[in-house]
Prior knowledge:
The chain folds into three domains: 3-30 and 528-725, 2-Layer Sandwich (Endonuclease, Chain A); 115-335, 2-Layer Sandwich (polyphosphate kinase like); 346-522, 2-Layer Sandwich (Endonuclease, Chain A). Helix content is 36%, strand content 21%. It contains 20 helices and 27 strands. The strands form four sheets. Strands 14, 18, 19, 20, 21, 23, 24, 25, 26 and 27 form a ten-stranded mixed beta sheet that branches.
Amino acid sequence: xxxxxxxxxxxxxxxxxxxxxxxxxxxxxxxxxxxxxxxxxxxxxxxxxxxxxxxxxxxxxxxxxxxxxxxxxxxxxxxxxxxxxxxxxxxxxxxxxxxxxxxxxxxxxxxxxxxxxxxxxxxxxxxxxxxxxxxxxxxxxxxxxxxxxxxxxxxxxxxxxxxxxxxxxxxxxxxxxxxxxxxxxxxxxxxxxxxxxxxxxxxxxxxxxxxxxxxxxxxxxxxxxxxxxxxxxxxxxxxxxxxxxxxxxxxxxxxxxxxxxxxxxxxxxxxxxxxxxxxxxxxxxxxxxxxxxxxxxxxxxxxxxxxxxxxxxxxxxxxxxxxxxxxxxxxxxxxxxxxxxxxxxxxxxxxxxxxxxxxxxxxxxxxxxxxxxxxxxxxxxxxxxxxxxxxxxxxxxxxxxxxxxxxxxxxxxxxxxxxxxxxxxxxxxxxxxxxxxxxxxxxxxxxxxxxxxxxxxxxxxxxxxxxxxxxxxxxxxxxxxxxxxxxxxxxxxxxxxxxxxxxxxxxxxxxxxxxxxxxxxxxxxxxxxxxxxxxxxxxxxxxxxxxxxxxxxxxxxxxxxxxxxxxxxxxxxxxxxxxxxxxxxxxxxxxxxxxxxxxxxxxxxxxxxxxxxxxxxxxxxxxxxxxxxxxxxxxxxxxxxxxxxxxxxxxxxxxxxxxxxxxxxxxxxxxxxxxxxxxxxxxxxxxxxxxxxxxxxxxxxxxxxxxxxxxxxxxxxxxxxxxxxxxxxxxxxx
Length: 734
């Protein structure tokens, strides 16, 4: 792409960005700017985010199978929400706890509102499926029932059932000799009313194992798929010969999945293994059952699972919406997002793939997934095989099952290098995987550290100590996302590679703090929670407010997944009232109410929901100048602005000093996110978010920050090799 075209595109983006004024503030009748109503409720805000995810399933600009994927994601999200957040609120309410949330609601009051909104959301999921299903049929993807099967189909289906399904099923009678079985979290079952030839009735269950696919393929042209419960009903004679089916239903359960660990656990790994078993047996927090279930059978299931009517959701439609992800077929690229191959940074290519040489030249920022996460893997693989590398330290919060990162660390340890892996056992729903990874590392000879019992270690740091001549050089990687090569294909995150000595010392101090519990005496270029990150963040916001009071330009641009910490929100309110222009991109939970006269008229917030999951955490301060500017202070972070991140986790806030990297973050990444139109939602002060669709949007192609970075390889392709490579987006303001 010619430089002139790139520059013109950047200038056009800047111009559009500048023309977007702050919306006029609104007045809310009876609103107390100092009362609890100045905050959005955390749980309802999360549900609002999931509504935005679900709305993408109705977005005609999204390819059909990607719409199905969004529908599935919304169901998976909601299930996790119930097993953790709702389960926790239930426990508080049952214990009689009336402590209000920041917005003034008790746990019981929150539960009422959650259930109302969640039920509406689940009803809407079924409505969307009713829209998508005929569109899938038109596209040649058909979901069958057993009654749709032809004679030829039945022969094939029976053979498939006997070979692939029958061996793993365990049909269970329900009577005094056969007690009702334990149904695990996310368990999915078929319940049956049967009658034998003598007229004797029998209730039975067929748990459907999660290890088998939800849908079996009956044919490929067109693609015809049969849900597993329909397959089992079609093959009842194989499971219960001599019985007639009187009635049936399907049901699924969600259980309390929050973990409690003893504060003084002598063996942390063993304690977590026990806790995982407790999670499996947690109390049921929600049961879904298909509409039209035989009343007696419904009563038996509810009684045996000890589920009250208030926790039962009757589903008039398809059960197990989260499993619809199986319909996202790779063989139908015409119904998926256009293929995209992440770029290899040109600077790494210029150095023949040598990561250390590329980093020595200058700090290197990679913007995932537009630039490949393979560079992070290559960094560690090269370190494992380099005879001059003496030591590697690595945090692991989440990673893949067959992690190339863990493999590289094992290779380094087996080669005799000093390898320390800080494995976080409390990474929710990844605890079992992390236990497996830690044992693999220990077998290879690595030092495995589990960090604090009371704090999760959520920081994303990797250090490599290398002998270079007569000195030791420390290369560090600071990330905003996990060391997970699979999620890195769909999460937008930042990776900073540097051999800056101060950042190397800071990284070593963080590792020493977690492994040895000794608080660092000083940190040079970073702040960490739970010690200094929150105070530093509040100080920086207040400094921007002082600049505004002194009549200097004052702006804050920030991007994160969630913001609910009351102290941070109140400090932002105060800064906005002092005249600071604050523009936030908050993907998920948002407790801050923007655009209210007398409280937050200088604050605006948007949420970007699209092809990629916005995950990077960035904060930029004008520092006495209008953003973007060379004078700005720019930080990347592993932390969202939530109490858990700022007080109960080990997190990092890393200041960017390299001017090229600063320009890339402020002038490209933040500017493009703030300028996005195609996939943005505006957070309103008085209710749900609304789509950001500017006037005339139906007649033109809306600006998409995701498409912008995919289609402009020059924006980040050299990994911040030099200032000339960055098209500067100057004087932009959303």
